């Protein structure tokens, strides 16, 4: 299943969020998927901290290896952020009156996705947290074995 199909699936399951130009944003992420990397969960929102800025749409894709945030610019170019499990710290979920937002805390920065449908917040938190906890265990066990051999 492609990133765009997963995005449409999310949009139909959780209507009410604000996101524009989904196909273009999904194409950015599709371009950067590595061989063997498959999208597991996709959601979309605004990559900012305020609910009134509605022109910074992006797509967030959880793959079997990392978390990608793709954003196509209007005229030319795009932005792509890659968050690997070893760089992931924490996830903060905020539910407001109309929409919610998610803050993904990494070692270097915080990525805030706002204007998310309230019904989607549990789904987003569960998918990201479960994947990252599982992958962090793998990183931890590989680091322990490499430390023992030194």
How would you describe this structure to a colleague?
This protein has 150 residues and is α+β, with helices and mostly antiparallel strands. The protein has 3 helices and 7 strands. The protein has helices at 3-13, 22-31, 121-149; strands at 39-46, 57-63, 67-72, 78-83, 88-95, 99-106, 110-117.
Q: Averaging pLDDT over every residue, what do you get?
A: 89
Strand order of the largest sheet: 1-2-3-4
Output the structural class.
alpha+beta
Q: Strand content of the residues, in percent?
A: 25-35%
The main sheet comes to: 4 strands, antiparallel
How many β-strands, per DSSP? 7
Taking Cα atoms only, what radius of gyration do you get, to the nearest Å?
A: 16 Å
Helix count?
3
The best one-word shape is: globular
- Helices and strands, in order, run as HHEEEEEEEH
Give the end-to-end Cα distance, rounded to a whole number of Å. Answer: 43 Å
Helix proportion range: 25-40%
Specify the oligomeric state. single chain
Stretches where pLDDT is under 50 for at least 5 consecutive residues are none
């Amino acid at each position: 299943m492609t990133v765009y199909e997963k995005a449409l699936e999310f949009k139909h399951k959780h209507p009410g969020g604000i996101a524009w130009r989904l196909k273009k944003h999904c194409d950015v992420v599709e371009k950067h998927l590595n061989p063997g990397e498959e999208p597991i969960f996709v959601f979309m929102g605004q990559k900012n901290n305020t609910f009134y800025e509605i022109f910074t749409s992006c797509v967030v894709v959880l793959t079997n290896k990392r978390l990608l945030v793709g954003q196509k610019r209007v005229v030319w170019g795009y932005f792509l952020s890659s968050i690997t499990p070893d760089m992931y710290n924490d996830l903060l979920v905020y539910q407001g009156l109309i929409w919610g937002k998610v803050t993904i805390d990494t070692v270097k920065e915080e990525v805030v996705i706002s204007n998310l449908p309230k019904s989607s917040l549990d789904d987003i938190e569960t998918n990201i947290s479960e994947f990252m906890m599982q992958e962090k265990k793998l990183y931890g066990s590989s680091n322990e074995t490499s430390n023992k051999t030194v």
